[in-house]
Amino acid sequence: MHNSVQTTIMSSSQQTTATSQDIENSIDSRAETDIVPPIEAGAHLDDDDRRRVFDFMLQTREFDLAMLRLYRQGRAFGGVYSQMGNEATAVATAYALQEQDVLFPMHRDIGAHFVRGQSLHALMLNHLARKGSMMRGTDGTGHYADPDKRIYGNISHLGAMIPVAAGFLMASRLKGEDCVAMTYIGDGGSQIGDFHEAMNLAAVQNLPLIVIIENNQYAYSTPNSESFACERLSDRALGYGCHGVTVDGTNPEAVYDACFEAIRNARGGGGPALIETVSMRMRGHAEHDDFSYVPREVIEYWGRRDPVDRYEKLVLERKIMTADEIAARRKEISSQMNAVIDEVVELPFPDAEEGFKNIFMD
After folding, report:
1. 151 lies in a domain?
2. Are strands 209-215 and 181-186 parallel, antiparallel or unpaired?
3. 208: domain range?
């Protein structure tokens, strides 16, 4: 077992976060008197960073709202997977990476794409399946790779990219590169074999792999109580012999600090890390899912913990931005979003022959 092995539970003031059972008990017993703790400044972000993190979160929320509108209008293609409730996790995790590091995101991590410098135009071109997109118009989600930005996108078989991320790091080591890889999986996806095999390989090989478990309470319609019996998913780190921590996934300060420490440890030779971020998927698995299986009390509980609203309070409290500046920035982002959508929807779809490329060998 590596010297760096530890499992830590960090939450908001101390950066601890509740387990799923704690949350269920809280919802049952305190629905009318629930007090949401304020987000406190963490150890590693300065106010310039906070402004940027908040801005990326605003962009992520507006992108999400735009995609929901396009879906209802019949102009979005493929599944539309809401980011709502995951903005703090997607943005703050990626923000902790360095330029030479690599990102293997999942379908609720659009904020991470923005952090890595992906353009709104490129993302919308891909999501609306237009000719010339990174997927050549053959796909309408985030299934793309952009090596120039060190982004290697997810595929529909969730968990399958974790071994790829581990393999990337083994190749990177042979090249003598200074590189950390970050990838993501959900609470449900963390039960599959690819996850376990890749974590074990990463620990044995002492690879600088950071795996974010986005615990958003449901694997499609299956609640956590029917998916796993452990108290915290990060507890599994002990079995692999690596660092593990659970944090409040609606608190970007807590998420960033946990990632900062794990990345520093991994880059210094301390091996991989499991970081469990606890939040809530605030819409269905995708927009075709009516979300009716989630109790109203659960939605209300997490609605009071909206990550964008919570972080806005800290931004205002620290005088990083004024209310008027935030309102103006929201309006600016919305205008930029609408302008890009207006441009992209006028572009052509790919030729039918494009669907046969890169499938069969010549």
Report:
1. yes
2. parallel
3. 6-31+39-347
Q: Are 150 and 100 in contact (CB under 8 A)?
A: yes
Residue 207: CATH number of its domain? 3.40.50.970
Whether 361 is in a domain gets the answer no
pTM comes to 0.89
CA pair distance 252, 124, nearest whole angstrom: 25
From first to last of the 362 residues of the chain, give the pLDDT tens digit. 344 444 454 433 334 455 555 555 555 445 567 788 899 999 999 999 999 999 999 999 999 999 899 988 888 877 888 888 999 999 999 999 999 999 999 888 899 999 999 999 998 888 888 888 878 777 777 788 889 999 997 787 888 999 999 999 999 999 999 999 999 998 888 888 999 999 999 999 999 999 999 998 888 888 888 888 888 999 999 999 999 999 999 999 999 999 999 999 999 999 999 999 999 987 878 778 888 898 998 899 999 999 999 999 999 999 999 999 999 999 999 999 999 999 999 998 888 888 788 777 76
Q: How many domains does the chain have?
A: 1
Strands (E), the chain: 6-9, 102-104, 145-146, 151-152, 181-186, 209-215, 218-219, 222-223, 243-248, 273-278
